[in-house]
Amino acid sequence: MAGIKAKAKLKNGTVKVKVLIKNPMMTYDQAKKKTGSRDNADFITHLSATLNGETVFDMSTSQFLSKNPIFKFEFKGIGAKGDKVQLLAMSNKGKAYKGKAKVR
Amino acid sequence: MERRKFLSMALGVVALAAIPASVRAEDFRKSKPTVWTTKNVYKDPKTPAGPTEEGVLAAVKELFGSNEITYSDVKLKAPDVASNGGAVPVDFSTNKDIKTIALLQNVNPEAAVLVLDTNKYSVNKYSIKLKMKMSGTIYIVAQGTDGKLYGAKKTLDVALGGCEG
Q: How many domains does chain A have?
């Protein structure tokens, strides 16, 4: 199953977001060792979060994150309880992972 | 080659200036592809053992155009000994006004791990987990709005390497 699990919590004006992406994070080295081909590498290359159409988080990543990587980040000045944080991640294979979290 | 590099950089600057900073979300994998392929340099390339700083500095140069890093104003928290190299928890934060913050290490085949593009809502406090092949050093490099590079680094022991799965 591919997807994103996320939680967002508002405290003292700051929204704390915790994101888990289900992805094997297979590096080129691992792919070659396990499947014999570098091309089977599968990892997240980009993760972004938006809230009410505004980008609040934007990250480009490489293969060296842990398997099923967890990210924590914070933002302030935007977001109220009940708002939804939309998350979108792309893998190197062009596959999109989507998720959302309601600000609590 | 030099000329081509210069031209593409100039184009990038023009493109960035044309878009307001608030909506700019840069995909560093597309705009700076060389960062991600910059290899780490080892003292002994056969084993490979004895990680050096060269690969990291080269990647930083590809990313920011300079590698003069001031090691201050950035906080980096990582364990002294990581029992599992497959998931080394790293927390980093800064109070500086920054544009971009990057995480690198010197033990995996390539140096760059992630590049974050900050925005006006960002509280520059992040927490992630990364893979490390063996004992080495983690670097955080942030580019301030003043264009200078601030950084932090931490050397840690990895008991069980994480990249071989």
A: 1
Tokens of B82: 């990581």
In the predicted model, what is the mean pLDDT of residues A54-71? 85
Closest CA to B63 of B155, B154, B151, B162: B151
Spell out which residues of chain A touch residue B113, defining contact as CB-CB under 8 Å.
Answer: 61-62, 64-65
Closest CA to B91 of B106, B101, B76: B76
CATH superfamily membership of B24-158: SoxY domain (2.60.40.2470)
What's the CATH code of the domain at A69? 2.60.40.10
Q: How many CB pairs under 8 A join A and B?
A: 109
Domain boundaries, given as residue ranges, for chain B: 24-158
**What is the reported pTM?**
0.77
Tell whether the torsion through CA atoms of B100, B148, B156 and B36 is positive or negative. Answer: positive
Partner-chain contact B116 A74, CB within 8 Å? no
Low-confidence winner among A44-58, B38-52, B141-155 (lowest mean pLDDT):
B38-52
Residue A47 contacts residue A6 (beta carbons within 8 Å): no
Q: Tell me the CA end-to-end span of chain B in Å, nearest whole number.
A: 38
Domain hosting residue A37, numbered range:
3-102
Cross-chain residue pair B123–A70, CB shorter than 8 Å: no
Nearest to A16 by CA among B162, B120, B125, B30: B125
* Percent of chain A surpassing pLDDT 90: 0
Identify which of B118, B98, B132 has the alpha carbon closest to the alpha carbon of residue A57: B118
Is the link from the previous residue into B48 a cis peptide, with omega within 30 of 0? yes
Looking only at Cα atoms, what is the longest distance across chain A? 51
Amino acid identity, position A52 = N
Contact state of A30 with B165 under an 8 Å Cβ cutoff: yes
